[in-house]
Amino acid sequence: MADNLARVKDEGVTHAQQRVTRKASKADADLRGRLRGDKAFLVGVLAISLIATLPLVLILVFIILRGASSINWQFLTELPKPMGEAGGGISNAIIGTFILIVLASVISIPLGILAGIFLSESGKSGLGRLTRLSVETLMGVPSIVIGIVAYVWVVRSMGHFSALSGGVALAMIMLPVITLSTEETLLLIPVSLREAALALGVSYPRTVLKVILPAGASGVITGALLAVARAAGETAPLLFTSFGSPYMEYNILKPVASLPQTIFYYATSPYPEWQSLAWGASFVLLVVVLALNLVTKLVTSRWKIQF
Fold it and tell me: Which CATH number applies to 71-302?
């Protein structure tokens, strides 16, 4: 009897050990399956990321190979040469682009920040919903349509092309970017920060301008830089507004050259020398846009909103 009980006990222990072993084996198999799935997912993500960045890399390499050879001191400091003469530069286009960006920034940044503040504070009101709808619609309007609108509003009113009309067109492109980025940034500010300022007796306008807006400064600056980077590469609106000029022009009431317009003009010409200048101007514009994006990333990483 004792031997039978011992044998049954041993068989029970053996079965229990087998069950534990099977469960451990199954757990190990599940773990190996999950690890293989994780590795496959990681490989898939890396492959998709590579496919997404490959066109950008190819564009950068192609422009660098074609445009870097045209870059020299004369190219950056001289005016364009007349047709048939070798050499020349794009200094007027560089200065003109700077003038257009400054004009557009002076117009769009204050308006965009104020509109963003209004949407963050009163976005649920009827006027707020209408304003947001208008801003989002403006975001999707093609740039060439904005150029035509600026032509009707400014160029026809003045009777001639000008840098001012180009600045207005670029400002309309920049405005929705700045407005929406400002709104999204200010909505992240904790309500407790506003309540603390109001509890100390600070007026509502000063609370918004002196407490809320500075707390979201990094997001506002990032939105402004992204808007500038977008406007810097626009060509279509400038064909209807600033038009272009072969001279160095500082008067905002006269036509001025710009890098995008110069690239378009030279790239469509039948002369190899001008096509080479177009590639050089493309390289300069690419460097400007990349520099603005790098500054944006630096501002975002070094000056984060912390609550």
Answer: 1.10.3720.10
